[in-house]
Design goal:
The chain folds into two domains: 1-53; 54-251, Aminopeptidase, CATH 3.40.630. The chain is 53% helix and 13% strand. The chain has helices at 2-52, 79-96, 119-134, 169-183, 200-204, 220-226, 229-251; strands spanning 57-62, 101-103, 140-148, 159-162, 193-194, 209-216. A six-stranded mixed β-sheet has the order 2-1-3-6-4-5. α2 crosses α7 (229-251). The protein binds zinc ion (ZN). Zinc ion is lined by residues 63-64, 70-71, 79, 146.
Length: 253
């Protein structure tokens, strides 16, 4: 009996040892996994922190706002709200990737100086203030976000505009134009277009800057898409990725 009892005790001991070993292994795995995760996060974060200083600030300019609605869709919706929704989405995407993002407006307002009277003067003050924001950063890239309009409703598709005020703007426009084609508008054959001082912000900005006309509100089909939340997100993602590609190509070590 004693021997049998001993055997039972031994079995119990083995079982306990086995349970202990399994428990230890699980704890060890959890510890290793946790340290890998937190260590991984740490290195990603510190990389982002160290390179964030070297990267340009991204300035997003949602066109129009307040008393200035911009162009109007076939169903009466002005572009100002569409521009703001897309720009806000671009900001959120880029911020989550670690970029410093500044918006010239984040509400439905004109940013003219208080006390300026008359729509014409307010519009001029608004543009002056947008330019002042853009040019207040030593190292920046800027995108003005607009929707297009034309008398002939058949025209559609995004088009990028730039001026030669910064030598990199043409390349920026090219990358963004291609991004639209690759991501959401495979039929788009438009080419980037250089402009003069008729596009005030592009002409006088001190940094690489483009104007993204995301599509035509005068085209019934595209107008409907541009007012669709899912499509707006796709446009925003496209713009965000265009900015990332341009920065990676021209600013990374
Ligand atoms: Zn516009």
């Amino acid at each position: 009996m004693k021997n049998v009892g001993d055997m039972r005790d031994m079995k119990k001991l083995y079982r306990k040892l086995r349970q202990f070993a399994v428990l230890t292994a699980v704890v060890a795995l959890v510890v290793v996994a946790f340290s890998l995760i937190s260590g991984g996060n740490k290195s990603v974060r510190s990389d982002a922190e160290s390179s964030a200083d070297d990267l340009p600030v991204v300035i997003l300019d949602p066109g129009h706002g307040g008393m200035d609605g911009g162009c109007v869709a076939v169903n009466g919706v002005p572009e100002k709200g569409i521009n703001l929704t897309i720009a806000t989405e671009v900001r959120d995407i880029l911020s989550s990737l670690g970029y410093q993002v500044v918006m010239t407006r984040d509400r439905d307002i004109s940013i003219h100086d208080s006390g300026v009277e008359g729509v014409g003067n307010q519009k001029k003050s608004d543009m002056d203030n947008r330019l002042a924001i853009i040019n207040s950063y030593e190292k920046a890239v800027a995108v003005s976000i607009h929707q297009n309009q034309f008398t002939d409703p058949k025209f559609c598709g995004a088009q990028m505009f730039y001026s030669n005020s910064d030598p990199l703007s043409a390349r920026f426009a090219q990358i963004m134009q291609e991004k639209f084609v690759t991501n959401i508008q495979p039929e788009n054959t438009r080419e980037t277009k250089q402009v003069g001082d008729e596009l005030f912000l592009l002409y006088y900005s001190n940094c690489p800057m483009i104007m993204s006309e995301c599509g035509f509100l005068s085209n019934p089909e595209e107008s409907e898409k541009l007012q669709n939340e899912q499509y707006q997100k796709q446009v925003a993602f496209t713009i965000a990725m265009g900015i990332v590609d341009f920065i990676n190509e021209n600013y990374q070590a």
